[in-house]
Design brief:
The chain has 303 residues and is of the alpha+beta class. It has 2 domains: 3-56 and 163-300, no CATH class; 67-150, Alpha-Beta Plaits, CATH 3.30.70.3040. The protein is built from 12 helices and 4 strands; from the N terminus they run H-H-E-H-E-H-H-E-H-H-E-H-H-H-H-H. It has a 4-stranded antiparallel sheet with strand order 2-3-1-4.
């Protein structure tokens, strides 16, 4: 096939795309929504998984002692914990240090005045850092023994564990919803593109017959439809990228404000991985659109 024929085929593909304005717009819009849902679903899950792992690595276990516990008992327990192979480090927080930390964190002046150095109800504590988040359970079980119940007021691990579990539950739920929506919109995209190409073939039957009569080969007739389908994918990829970036740009500050330190930097993740996301979307879009075009051509175009 000559370069001139290739140029004509490509030109016909573009002409088909622009000629069927409303049909092309509908197919591109549905494809855009499909890519949008798939991409947001993947970005959200990757970011929340990374955030969960990051939070896990930072979580420690705090042991708060009752006032009846002696300093000797506290130091002995600290020594026992330091000797455990699953413990990375143990830090003792005295009542004075706890008071200073509380004063730094508490911004309400009236509440701050309720606690003074002379009247300090804040307990002594140990901050235990595990070698791995998975070891926190066994450390918590060790501290929950009957031997230590009289000296330990509270172990904070359960609250931290609940936060992690909530994040895991959110991830699982979003995975299910994202997967269902992705499948639904992929099916809709397939049906729309199949019918768009079918209608294009139907409206161009007379033109196709003339092309056959003047000796045009099968490739010259079929390939423009494949190019048309590919254009759906290319334009849909571009639109979905723009919409994703705008959406993340607008909602990221709100997410950061709502979650505080436990922030999901979705915009940062998107920009850092933009080339791979574009490539991924483009491959999916072209795969869906060209496959649908080939099926529609084979089914509706009799040469």
């Amino acid at each position: 096939m000559s370069s001139q024929s290739i140029r004509r085929i490509i030109k016909l593909g573009f002409v088909n795309f622009w000629r069927n304005g409303w049909l092309s717009s509908a197919a591109t819009l549905i494809m855009t929504l499909t890519l949008l849902i798939i991409s947001v679903f993947l970005i959200f899950n990757l970011v929340i998984s990374t955030t969960t792992e990051s939070i896990k690595s930072k979580i420690d276990l705090s042991v708060y002692f009752s006032d009846e516990a002696t300093d000797l008992q506290v130091q002995e327990l600290k020594l026992f914990l330091q000797q455990r192979p699953d413990v990375k480090g143990v830090v003792f927080i005295s009542k004075e240090e706890a008071f200073k930390k509380w004063q730094e964190v508490q911004k309400n002046e009236k509440i701050r005045q309720l606690v003074t150095e002379e009247n300090n109800p804040l307990p002594r504590s140990l901050e235990v850092k595990a070698n791995s988040p998975e070891n926190l359970d066994s450390i918590a079980n060790f501290l929950s023994q009957e031997t230590y119940k009289s000296m330990i007021r509270k172990i904070s691990y359960q609250e931290n564990k609940d936060v992690i579990q909530k994040l895991i539950n959110i991830t699982k739920f979003s995975q299910k919803i994202g997967l269902i929506l992705s499948i639904i919109f992929i099916i809709i995209s397939i049906l729309v593109i199949l019918n768009t190409i079918r209608l294009t073939i139907f409206t161009r039957q007379t033109e196709i017959e003339i092309m056959r009569l003047v000796g045009a080969n099968d490739s010259f007739i079929k390939v423009p439809f494949l190019i048309e389908g590919t254009l759906y994918g290319i334009f849909a990829t571009f639109l979905s990228m723009v919409l994703i970036w705008l959406g993340l740009y607008l909602i990221s500050p709100m997410i950061t404000k709502y979650l505080g330190e436990v922030s999901l930097d979705m915009e940062g993740f998107f920009l850092a991985n933009l080339p791979w996301i574009v490539l991924f979307e483009l491959l999916i879009a072209i795969l869906i659109s060209t496959t649908c075009s080939m099926i529609s051509i084979r089914k509706n175009l009799r040469l």
